[in-house]
Amino acid sequence: MRDVIVVGAGPSGSYMGYDLSKRGLDTLILEEHREVGKPVECTGLVSERVMKYVHTKAGVNRVNGARIIFPNGESTHIRKSEKTIVMDRDRFDKDVAGMAIDAGSDFSIDSKVIGVRESRECVEVRYRKSGNLVEERARVVVGADGVNSRVRRDIYGNRPRRIVSAYQVDAAYELPDQDSVEVYLGSGTSGGFFGWATPAGDTTKIGTGSLYPTAKKFFDNLNARFGKDKVLGINGGAIPISYLRRTYSDRSILVGDAAGIVKPLSGGGIYTGIVSSECGAGVIADAIEHDRVGMRKLSAYQRLWKKKLGLELWFDGLVQKLFSSLSDNTFDRLYSIISTPEITSVINRVGDIDYPSRVVLSVIARNPEIVKYLLVKR
User: Fold this and answer.
1) What is the domain count for the chain?
2) DSSP states of 186-218 as a string?
């Protein structure tokens, strides 16, 4: 019987495998696809913090600015000293998986999990490996298998309440400003979320997210700005932007997207997923070392990740719910506030893609009137 089976070899699952194996646990990682990193379902924007966890050369560009385009066509530019990294997600995922393998994790690709069952003694995982049915037992299973997690479905029976539909392409279009991401607000380019264009050298990642109708409708509107015949590849998927009330059971924990541990304002899940995996690995290792696997012991995982991320995700979730209800007129009125030199300076100074509450609270502190614009719908 294994110590741990990790379902999913995205960054959260592979980092979990790396951390567990480094601690000496017998760990198996199951990946349903035939190749790690495929299909790509993410823009790949991360902060320098992620590089403290993962040894990779997957960066294709570094940006330190964002141009925010409002529904009326006006825009404002913000800039910060710390660079944000634009990554080749395919290579990044492979690099994290390589760390797990080097640390001692067993790895099985083309292994689609079809059933997970807990008992008092163990957890049983059934999966198809190249078409053949395989059954494995472990003391703990980790659900790192994304928004449609099989582990979560079989053990927890629920899913995150708020889910964004995302649609993105790689386009043969070179943005004039390679140092800035473009962010599009309003009903023409998104349903309650935002659109984006991320520079990656001679290509651009163009996409949009939507809480309401599927994102494809809004993507077509956005992509018309760049030329419809320049699409090189299509990717996307669902992004959970609310976390579960409980992310542990008797013999399992959920990390990253499977638990909804994702930044609600941006939909970014790499940093939060890795942090949740780091928290979970320590708790699992302690439980197995003391032979006390169970809900009471594994509940420490939720307390730990919430201590590090919970307040930020909760606050950002409140802001996102308000943001998703704003009309185009409200966005345009906000432009007059956000574009002032004083507010732009605040955003430039405290902006942080991993902890956006810092900039939101700082802006409100400098201009409390902004709350009126947000709450009065016109």
Assistant:
1) 3
2) STTT-BSS-EEEEEETTEEEEEEEESSS-HHHH
pLDDT digits (tens, 9 = 90+) for 181-194: 999 999 999 999 99
The residue with tokens 């079989």 is 154
User: What number of other Cβ atoms are within 10 A of residue 204's Cβ?
Assistant: 23
Are the beta carbons of 120 and 139 closer than 8 angstroms? no
Q: Which range marks the domain in which residue 173 is found?
A: 163-237
Final residue of a domain: which of 237, 272, 292? 237
129 DSSP β-pair partners: 111, 132
- Could you tell me whether strands 59-69 and 45-46 are parallel, antiparallel, or unpaired per DSSP bridges? unpaired
Same-domain pairing of 36 and 106: yes
Three-state DSSP class for 63? strand
pLDDT confidence tier of residue 351, bands split at 50, 70 and 90: confident
**Strand 59-69 to 180-184 pairing:** parallel
Instruction: List, for residues 43-95, the tens digit of each pLDDT value.
Output: 788 988 999 999 898 988 889 889 999 999 999 998 877 788 988 888 999 99
Cα separations (Å) of 257 from 25, 72, 80, 250, 280?
Answer: 24, 34, 28, 20, 14
23 plus 100 within the same structural domain: yes
| Encoded amino acid at 359, one letter | V
pTM: 0.93
Which residue is listed with tokens 């606050």? 315
